[in-house]
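Re: Re: ligand-bound prediction request (bumping)

Still looking for help on this. To restate: I need the protein modeled with flavin mononucleotide bound, output as structure tokens. Inputs repeated here so nobody has to scroll up.
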Amino acid sequence: MNFSEFIRNRHSPRAFLPDEIPAEDIKEILLDAQSAPSNSNTQPWNVHVIGGQKLKDLSAALIEEFDTNGLNPDFTVDYGEGVHPQRSMELAAKMYGMLGIAREDKEARTEFVRENLRFFGAPYSALMFIPPMGDRIRAAFDQGTYAENFLLSLTAHGYHGVPQGMISLLAPTVREFLGVDEEYKLVTALTFGRADESSPVYKTNPGRVALSETVTVHGIEGLGL
Ligand SMILES: Cc1cc2nc3c(=O)[nH]c(=O)nc-3n(C[C@H](O)[C@H](O)[C@H](O)COP(=O)(O)O)c2cc1C
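Reply:
Sorry for the wait, this slipped through. Here it is.
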């Protein structure tokens, strides 16, 4: 597979097998992630990797908090107006369609939120916090470069990963469980393991918009998007 095929084949499965993966592989993947670029080489990623019974206990704490008090994120979940919430709604419609969950079936949709909180059955998750640095935008960007390295390294090693912003919607519960300082804000979880290829949501294939919708070209001849 060439690099373009490789990178375009990465995808987010939302179902995992419970199988453990070798600790050496996890270490290699962490080293690959760590090689990401960052603003002034600040490397502002602060990552807690959890597996085994610890992850199950965290999942139970998250579900209890969600069922009792609801969500409590560090950062707002606001996609603004126009194309961005539209794309998000298209993804949700596709995903719920694949699961056979109707739009008006609130209980089934809530159960799928709980499935997120069960880490989709995966044996590992990396919880990604950013430190107090100004308005945190630069740290959040750097966390993103780290996360993409992580995802691509998982793919290269034959595993899968899915970022889970959903976990960050219960940030105080995660911090309390892990003993993390309140100043460290949770951006996302990156949940990983071997994917369950038999699941209807193994590959959602949400597609991407045309380049012309996201890229504007200045002064380059022949690059018609
Ligand atoms: C920061 C971030 C947070 C995400 N949070 C969730 C999540 O909570 N639950 C989920 O099922 N997918 C989540 N995703 C996965 C996206 O929905 C997915 O990347 C997007 O639809 C494109 O699909 P693909 O990864 O299969 O190419 C998240 C992705 C990112 C980058």
